[in-house]
Amino acid sequence: MPSKKLIEEIVIRIKNSVKPVRIILFGSYASGNIKEDSDVDILVVIDTDKEPQNYEERSENYLKISRELKDIQKKIAIDLLVYTQKEFEKFKSMGSMFSKHILKTGKDLA
């Protein structure tokens, strides 16, 4: 189970890999319902208005962060969502249960 220090290390590494507008912790670690097999759910909004035009561009944004977290992911599973600012606005406007849940219960880390 990751400590507060490990979560802080995740945030530092995300900041080192991209310029985040927001980093949101959601799921069991945000709600405090942590179990032995819980993963760390993180949503990152990166500081760019450029929307990915294809899978390769989308993957590039994700991989920039994922590479920085590689050794941490050997200790704990990290479920990572990466959006540009425009994608995040679309995500919020969708009004899905998932987006509402993250926005309501998620904890801003940066």
Primary descriptors:
Beta Polymerase, domain 2; 46% helix; four-stranded mixed sheet; alpha+beta
Strand content: 15-25%
CATH topology: Beta Polymerase, domain 2
Number of helices: 5
Q: Secondary-structure element sequence?
A: HEHEHEHHE
Report, as a whole number of angstroms, the end-to-end distance.
21 Å
* Range of helix content: 40-55%
Major sheet = 4 strands, mixed
What is the class in the CATH system? Answer: Alpha Beta
Write the CATH homologous superfamily: Beta Polymerase, domain 2
Shape: globular
In the predicted model, the low-confidence regions spanning at least 5 consecutive residues are none
Structure description:
The structure is a single chain. By secondary structure, the protein is an alpha+beta fold. The chain is built from 5 helices and 4 strands, in the order H-E-H-E-H-E-H-H-E. It has one domain: Beta Polymerase, domain 2, CATH 3.30.460. Strand 2, helix 3 (55-68) and strand 3 (78-84) form a beta-alpha-beta unit. The mean pLDDT is 92.
What does this entry show, briefly?
This protein is an alpha+beta fold and 110 residues long. The protein has helices at 4-17, 28-31, 55-68, 85-94, 97-105; strands at 20-26, 40-46, 78-84, 107-108.
